[in-house]
Every structure is written in structure tokens, then in C-alpha cells.
């Protein structure tokens, strides 16, 4: 009897535990990160704008959402310098969200549009890479931007709760009538998204494939979603290209599809095809600075620095922030135009003071500029030849000249010795030419090495190791990229100087 009473007393407790567990699973905490604002504003203005973004998020996010503190976000990204380097190397907010290990990520960017300021706010779901909400407007000055943020940004963050209510994990996919292929394809697509969110990539690909089989000419998202998984983490670029091509066939007016396919070609080192896709993306969306940045990066890797600089200049026109100036400055540095490289790095630091990696690039450009000036050969000093008329035969010369027989005789000052050509100058010039050519060839090999190491850096996987191990691997990989680039630039410069000096010795001596 006592045992029966204990069992009855334990039953409600057990039920309550089950209810608590179900409640925790249903309302699992989701993390949201607001990245530091970016653009043409001062550091204090951008910090204030970021605070306003956080205030707007806190107003609307429910209790089961956690808004990370700003210092936590920066720490997860490896510190402010690492964060700024990531911003300059990638134009994807989602990639930064993945590194910050959050579920949702938002950022505010401010650029110039004529004499006005243009604000753009974007909110992404990190797992799917989908854009949940966006807001864009124009104001005359910074203080007119703040009311726009307070009024409109809360609606952007409300999209998270709408997405949470619509997610298939909360509401199972309803059974569909077998005779309706489009509905069956939609159901398979939703199952694929659930599998993708749970990191079951093989199952997700299988479900997306089923959706495509059932409705091959329907929603281009079926192809795009499968292509994203083929691109990463599978790195099966041929399959990703095929799916991006199908997405473009169905919806040829979306620049992201062209740019994504171009990224595949870039990783396969098929640069001409990548340039063609980035060019098509620019035609579809000529105001998107990311398209110009992507194409400019390829031109720079190919050594076509003038075209790369032209694309970076267009990117600056649409988004004049520090990252674009840094990219163009790096193009000028690779080209050997150190004066313009110095100017762009200084402008990048003016917009974002204290960035160590930009300061290092500026220091490198200043040293190369000074070395070039010191290595220039001095101006050639002409030997003056003094001509003296022979006064002892002035009369004879005058008569002969009047009769047209000859010109007046002239004498060379014996104090001025005639120039003597030396074989030493020839061998010196030849040695300089050979050394210069060798250094330039070495720079060419280091350019290939830099491209290879940059590709290795881009392949780093944040989920393949612990955070600390990944940070060390990332730092080491990026250091190798910088070392290869520096060796390439120094070899090009010193080799060019030697070659030019050798040619000058040939000409002058």
C-alpha cells in the first residue's frame, strides 16, 4: 500500500519533468549578433548606430532569444583586427555570423549617395544563408538617420519571430496528395531545409534532389539550395555549377546566382569563366559593389592590375568605405604604383583608424616607395667640349670660306679629354639585366604561391576543429599569404629596378 502511494506521488513529478523538458526543447535559446556598423561615418557615429540597432532588437525579440554583447561578438571573431580583416576579405555577412557562432546576424551599413547618406540594414539566418529582413532609406545627415533606425529596424528583427513560427521543426510538414507533384516537391524541399539545419547534409541533398525530380522547372530555390551544399561543405564545384546554371535558367535576373557560380569557377582557377559570370552579375545589378569587388579580385590574381583597380574604383563609387579603399590600395601596391597605394591605405585608416593590418600595408608601401626613389640613377652630366678657333690661320680660313672651299678650322681644348668607352660598363649592365630578370621570374613564381596559399586560407572550415585550433590555423594561413605577397612584390620591384638600371647603363655608357 505504501509502495502504491509512492508511485502515485512520483507520477505528477515525472510528468512535470517531461513538460519542462518539452518546454525547453520548444523554446531553445537562439542567439543573435549585431555586427559593428560599417561605412563612411566616423568611429563614434558608427558605434552609436550599432547601439541603436541593439536597442531596436531588444524591443522586439522574445525571451528565448539572446542578443550577444558586442565584446562577446568581437571575441568570437578573433578580436577587432581579425574582424576587420575578415570584413575586407569577404563581402558576406553570413560568413561573419558563422565565425561568431550565432543563429542570426545583422549589420547596418552607411554609404554616400550624392550629398545624402544611404542606410542599409540586413538580417540573415546563418544556417540557411537566407535574407530574413532588410531596410534601406536616405537621409541628409547622420542625425536624420537615427529616427529612421528607431522607426524601421524593429520591424526587421520581428522577421526572426515570424521565421521561428513558420519553421518546419515546430510545425510538421502536412501530408500532400500524391497526385500533386508541385506540392510533393515543396514538401521534399521543406524536409531538405530541416535536414540542412540539423547539419545532415547528405539527407538534405537527397530531399532537394527529390524536389527537383518532382518539379524540375518550378522554384529555382531547389537548385540553389542544393548548390550551396555542393559548394560548401562538399566542395564539389562541378555539381554546384550545374545547379547554379539551372537556377539562372529559371530566374536569370538575380545577380547572386551569377556571382555564386563565378565563385565556383574562381576556386577551380578558371578565371575567364569567373570573370564572365561576375560581369553578367554587374549587368543584372550594376549598383551592387560586391560584384565589382569579386571581379576585381580575379583581375588582381591574374596580374591585370589596371582592370582590378578600375573595378575597385567602381566599388568605391557605390560603397566608399575603408574596405574598398584597402582593396584598391592593395591593387596599386601589386602594380608597383606605391604613391597611389599609400594614398588609399591612408584613406582606409582615416575611415577606420587603428587597423593593424592596414598599417602594415601602409608601412610596406612607404618602404617600397622610398627604396624606388633611392635606387633611381642620377641625372647624366654632359661633358662640355670647348671649341677654340686657330687664331694663327684666321686669314687663310676666311679666304677659303669665302671661296667655298672649306669651313673654318676648329680645335678641341686639349684640357678636355675625349670620352673612352669601357668594356666594364657592358659587363656591369649585363649583370644587372640578368639579376633583374631572375628576380622578376622569382616574383612570378611567388605570385602563384600567393594565389595557392590564399585558396588554402579560404578552404578553412570553422567546424573542423575547436575554436582555438581554428584561430591558430587561420592566423598561420593568413601569415603565409602575406609572406608570399610580400616576397612577390619585393621581387617585382627590386628586379624592375635592376633591369631598368642595366638598360640605363647600356644607354648612357
What does this entry look like structurally?
- There is one protein chain.
- The protein has 509 residues and is α/β, with parallel strands linked by helices.
- It has helices spanning 2-26, 43-60, 70-76, 80-89, 93-100, 142-166, 181-197, 201-214, 221-231, 237-250, 255-267, 271-284, 289-302, 305-318, 322-335, 338-351, 356-375, 394-403, 423-458, 467-508; strands spanning 30-34, 38-39, 65-67, 104-113, 116-125, 130-139, 387-389, 410-412.
- The strands form two sheets. Strands 1, 2, 3, 4, 5 and 6 form a six-stranded mixed β-sheet that branches. Strands 7-8 form a two-stranded antiparallel sheet.
- Helix 15 runs antiparallel to helix 16 (338-351).
- Residues 1-5, 18-27, 167-171, 381-393 and 408-417 have low confidence and may be disordered.
Briefly, what is this?
Helices cover 67% and strands 9% of the residues.
What portion of the residues fall into strands of 2 or more residues? 5-15%
| Order of helical and strand elements | HEEHEHHHEEEHHHHHHHHHHHHEHEHH
Structural class: alpha/beta
CATH topology of the largest domain: Serine Threonine Protein Phosphatase 5, Tetratricopeptide repeat
Radius of gyration, in Å, reads 34 Å
Largest sheet: 6 strands, mixed
Name the CATH superfamily assignment of the largest domain. Answer: Tetratricopeptide repeat domain
What is the multimeric organization of the chains shown? single chain
State the shape: globular
Count of DSSP strands = 8
CA-to-CA gap between the ends?
119 Å
